[in-house]
Design goal:
The chain has helices at about 20-35, 40-55, 100-105, 115-125, 200-205, 205-215, 220-230, and strands at about 5-10, 75-80, 85-90, 110-115, 150-155, 155-165, 185-190, 190-195, 240-245, 250, 260-265. Helix 2 (about 40-55) runs antiparallel to helix 3 (about 100-105). Strand 9 (about 240-245) and strand 10 form a beta hairpin. The protein has about 260 residues and is of the alpha+beta class. The structure holds glycine (GLY). Glycine (GLY) binds near residues 146, 147, 164, 167 and 202. The site of glycine has 12 residues, from strand 8 and helix 5.
């Protein structure tokens, strides 16, 4: 990595997460920053942050995932970078870090794998499994906490990553915004966006792509965040983190643990 490259990392624990858990998002951000400093690809650094949040247990992802109404756990995850790399999994069951599976998908001939096929793919790739009794499960309902996410800038490159256990008590097979490109996340040459909250509402707004288009128009992330939050009803949980060449910002219409850090490397 050349001298003087700007590194920016934002991590969040999901719309509705307790701001007191910002120690967890800070640690995830630090791990991402160390990965960037060691020269890892930016998308892998974003995925490292999300894997750390999946392992935290206080957020609705990985071992903290909500349960479906049949007591199963189905998880969605995705990652993207500004070079056009994208990968996602949906309704994945029995694996510790869905974001790692999404990253491997991004390196395959496919963009998204779901359900049984995603499980088979993860097993074939030797991904670490997770038994049902290892799931801690966060909160009692959807309002408690949502998707975890990360956006990263490394000089002129951008990346983002998301992971979620979805809505508590939803029917098996329900999938929200997380694996849908341009809905939960988007990264391009001008910046990166990660959304969190009501997955159906986020998807119907094509939220991340439209937020990214505001970046392309030159809007400051500090203005983009309230603009995008205003697209949602106050009663619809929604949060967002944004980074661009101009700056970075995060915000939510309920509560959210989130942190940001920047440095020159
Ligand atoms: N935002 C995550 C979901 O609705 O599944």
């Amino acid at each position: 990595m050349e001298e003087g490259k700007k590194l920016v990392v934002l991590t969040h624990g999901g719309a509705g997460s307790d701001p007191a858990f910002a120690d967890g998002t800070a640690i995830a951000g630090q791990i991402c920053m160390m990965s960037l400093q060691s020269g890892e690809p930016i998308i892998d650094s974003a995925c490292q942050a999300v894997a750390t949040l999946e392992d935290d247990g206080r957020f609705n992802a990985g071992i903290g995932s909500h349960k479906r109404n049949d007591d199963t756990v189905q998880m969605d995850a995705s990652c993207m970078d500004s070079s056009g790399t994208f990968g996602a999994v949906a309704a994945l069951e029995g694996f510790k870090n869905p974001i790692h599976v999404a990253r491997i998908v991004s390196q395959s001939e496919y963009k998204m794998l779901v359900g049984r096929g995603a499980n088979q793919f993860a097993a074939n790739q030797g991904c670490q499994t997770l038994s049902p009794n290892q799931i801690i499960g966060t909160g009692a309902d959807f309002s408690t906490t949502d998707t975890v996410g990360c956006v990263v800038r490394a000089g002129d490159q951008f990346a983002c990553a998301l992971s979620t256990g979805g809505i508590d008590d939803a029917i098996p097979g329900r999938v929200g915004d997380v694996p849908l490109i341009g809905c939960g996340l988007y990264a391009g040459p001008d910046g990166a966006v990660a959304a969190t909250g009501d997955g159906e509402a986020i998807a119907m707004q094509v939220t991340a792509l439209r937020a990214y288009q505001l970046i392309e128009q030159g809007m400051d992330p500090k203005a983009i965040v309230p603009t995008v939050i205003a697209w949602f009803k106050e009663t619809t949980a929604f949060g967002i983190i944004v980074v661009s060449k101009i700056g970075f910002a995060g915000g939510v219409n309920c509560s959210m643990a989130w942190t940001a850090s920047e440095m020159l490397h």
